[in-house]
Amino acid sequence: MVDKPWAGAVVQELLGLKDAQVRAGAFEYTGDAYEGNQFDFFAELESGERLYFQPRLAEIGFRTLDVAPRERDRLLERYARRLEGVVESKWLAPEEVFRRHELLRALACLQRPENRLYLVLPRANQPLLQAFSILPDIATPAAAERVHMLYLEDAVEGLAALARGRDELLRQHYRELREKYIPSE
């Protein structure tokens, strides 16, 4: 778990959700242990909204999934339930689910209509920005409104300002995030 005042500052200042009050937050959050989809940061607001942050750094697109035939039906059923109302139905065809597995897996956190997904990416990664251009075609209009791109550079700069004057543990979190996501030049 994270310091609630600091998480509140992140949500209010960095994301611009001025009236949001954080109930809980966590780094390296796995919402569904069976699924294993990990988000680098998660915050739950008093309103019930859940904010999921998933960085995409050096990737040039989204990973596919090659699955044994005996597992296909089980996975397809699972994703069909979780993605209903989140993605357009044509994207739930087996070949699309496995071809765009990583993106659909991230979008599955939007099954609750109050949830938001923040995809954190570097400005310089043009192939990844291009890969995201399919998002409006895949997501339903209501879900697409809840997916936000957050540039890594802006996030790190904003977090640096929020870490100033805070306790040493929070400054250490910031330093670790910076080392992990912004390698030295």
Task: Describe this structure as you would to a colleague.
The chain is an alpha/beta fold and 185 residues long. It has a domain at 4-59 and 112-181: Trna Endonuclease, Chain: A, domain 1 (3-Layer(aba) Sandwich), CATH 3.40.1350. The protein is built from nine helices and five strands, in the order H-E-E-E-H-H-H-E-H-H-H-E-H-H. The protein has helices at 4-14, 69-83, 94-99, 101-107, 126-132, 135-138, 141-144, 152-163, 168-181; strands at 22-30, 38-45, 50-55, 116-121, 147-151. A five-stranded mixed β-sheet has the order 1-2-3-4-5. The longest helix has 15 residues, at 69-83. The radius of gyration is 17 Å and the shape is globular. 25% of the residues are buried. The model has no long low-confidence stretch (mean pLDDT 83).
